[in-house]
């Protein structure tokens, strides 16, 4: 099968407009004859469901939480980018496009990224009109800050709760359509499989998490907006319920999975304190605007800090190594995430890490506090400082924060074309669940932008083209594929419930996480990856023999829910390793130790690897087949990223 | 590891909404003060699962104090003893070795128990569906900076918008009133220019839905404000009453 990304011809700046014109439209009177299934109600899903319903389609929306507004998007802190250029500091659609392509280490599509930058401005207008309370200046206009290595201030924010406010905005639009009867909302419902009829996605199978009832739902198109798979690492900044099940089940039904190894490890998270740890907490990247990252210059001093003989404030200025400022004078503490994370790992590997475990570096606000005063620092970051203190019992106004990298975001995901359609006709993927716009590394404040761009401004146009082509005839839910898929789901549930071994689901999940972090985490090499592949396969076998799943199907059963999700992670993990092994270069968040510059930076191999790796499932325990989508660069010149 | 605590838990167990529930006692041993309250329950649950017993069910997701999914009445207080803190952000250093901790679900007629500590808070959904939005569709909106909003107004609206919809205010109130939650939602829109066209209709629709869901009235004890993890102010309630009153005035 040839992968066709369907990127429109023509100059970059005209592609999207022309494409919109060329897409077929559904006659307004016919829209109500189409049913669209939207799985997930985070920024991507809620915005898509609301907008499609406004257009007149019948939407069925699903989420596993008890409310659509509890989707993981709610936790995003720092902000959302848009090329508004309100501060008049030289931003433009082209600059946002360029920064995003470069930030992604030239592993994303020009056409997609340009479109993203283009519609970014509409997102802010839309959110403000909904009543999203973004931060404002004294004159009443919107405030912007610079974020995540950008050299212009293009990030809109609502204190440290931007995701919450944006999601509540999208949720309000969704509520309006629920009230109008155009969206039927299914909460506490988990999609467990995809129904494919005649090669097209036509429905899903869900489990009601209260009653255990397994149902099928039919629709003319299915949109997966189910978020990222960072929890394959067990510990991550994702919410506890974030999972890959919907995307993975779709993959096993024919949708290609792209660039699974591209994982973002975020540099500023609160370090692990012990085995009981259930998740990691992000300290927003915005902190790097004013905080300075350092470790002691010598291993001896670091050791004394770790033993508690010295405190951070005892270390004299000349004994500190502000290593990011030293190595990257022009970007300093604002280098992109992958670079900041790798450098933190490096200094800790050298033995200069701090905190009891030695797996932490300092993020110090002393200078900012003396420059701006504590009230100004509190106004900007107060809620983050409070959160830090609650978790660590240390006051970051007085002592520097300790931070360490943690898994945060997955750039990989379901392969989609320019229309956001997967390789399976009728199946679309939006938001973090798809692979599309961030290449090998996502810049800060661009995931919220992408989720809302996909949902508010892309899918409403592109899905119409497919629907107009297939026509409004009702989907026949009596086709045997529906009953067959449902039976397979029920069989899997029974199988899981029959397992009464000796190890808990969490124990398997933790083991998987250790393997992934050790061998497929911040840096990778061929030998380790090969080892990990074997270890994951073994762990998966052991899981299906020896895990304990308690309770029954016909009740609330969190043990069963978790087991199903971890079973899918155990399959995904192996594909991530295959992908990392295949990509014999370093790019963005994917760092292969064998491929680095003399200074230890990621060394790309554009001649051989400027492609999207899209994997096709061929059957359980069969090797997946790699399809390559060549990336074509007509506008930007591929260079070695430099933040010196 | 040392410095660890041994605790006794009295936990509300209830199979489903129709079966009566009861307190069951568990030991939580070797608990680190660095654990969050939910991580402590994870440890207890791991032990239960190892014995193939049903783990204690509770709602949670973000574990960062923002999704509003976690709940739990801990020693009689929704979200536990620490002010301005959700259960997921409460750490075991707030307790002492040897403590007995009583853990219950939200108690309110409008939030029926689903299982153990999990309740059904869908009443909050219906209240927001009744009017918690600005009636605009995607596209065709003015440029964001064409709607200037004085910073103090924007900040005030933001502080109402911080509500995470957890329901602790209802659980804290002896009348199970939802006024703090509903008033926070109404206030956000009542304060902002975007909310003006539907200001009174919204207040009326949301208040009527709230009453229909069976939440109690407000008798000004301010227990809600004291327990709210996001420090939503009771001044929102005064504003809501004014909005509702004006709505009725306009109609008559
Ligand atoms: C702590 C944190 C901070 C962040 N800060 C920022 C930031 O400042 N700026 C930025 O741009 N990005 C940020 N990000 C990234 C960004 O928040 C996410 O990438 C984005 O919100 C994902 O949105 P989404 O709509 O794709 O998915 P999500 O919000 O994850 O939503 C997934 C939805 O799918 C549903 N779902 C999943 N599986 C199933 C299933 N099987 N059945 C039914 N429903 C299912 C869930 O219920 C949920 O509704 C942050 C991420 C984290 C973890
Ligand atoms: S007002 Fe406070 S207690 Fe009530 S739902 Fe909102 S955040 Fe929770
Ligand atoms: S789990 Fe999200 S607020 Fe507690």
From TrEMBL, chain A:
Q: Name one GO cellular component term.
A: plasma membrane
Required cofactor(s): FAD
Q: Which residues form the Fumarate reductase/succinate dehydrogenase flavoprotein-like C-terminal domain?
A: 509-643
Bilayer topology: Peripheral membrane protein
Instruction: Give every FAD-dependent oxidoreductase 2 FAD-binding domain span.
Output: 35-448
**What biological-process GO terms show up in the record?**
anaerobic respiration
Reaction(s) catalyzed by this protein? a quinone + succinate = fumarate + a quinol
From the Swiss-Prot or TrEMBL record, state where the protein is found. Cell membrane
Q: Which UniProt keyword terms apply here? A: Cell membrane, Electron transport, FAD, Flavoprotein, Membrane, Oxidoreductase, Transport
Active site residues according to the UniProt entry: 337
Quote the Pfam families the UniProt record gives: FAD_binding_2, Succ_DH_flav_C
One annotated GO molecular function is:
electron transfer activity
Q: Using the UniProt record, name the top-level EC class of this enzyme in a single word.
A: oxidoreductase
Under InterPro entries, the record lists:
FAD-dep_OxRdtase_2_FAD-bd, FAD/NAD-bd_sf, Fum_R/Succ_DH_flav-like_C_sf, Fum_Rdtase/Succ_DH_flav-like_C, SdhA/FrdA/AprA, Succ_DH/Fum_Rdt_flav_su, Succ_DH/fumarate_Rdtase_cat_sf
Q: Where does this chain mainly localize?
A: membrane
Q: What is its EC number?
A: 1.3.5.1
PANTHER family the record matches = SUCCINATE DEHYDROGENASE 2 FLAVOPROTEIN SUBUNIT, SUCCINATE DEHYDROGENASE FLAVOPROTEIN SUBUNIT
Family (UniProt)? Belongs to the FAD-dependent oxidoreductase 2 family. FRD/SDH subfamily.
Give the protein's recorded name: succinate dehydrogenase
Per the UniProt entry, what species is this protein from, by scientific name? Pelobium manganitolerans
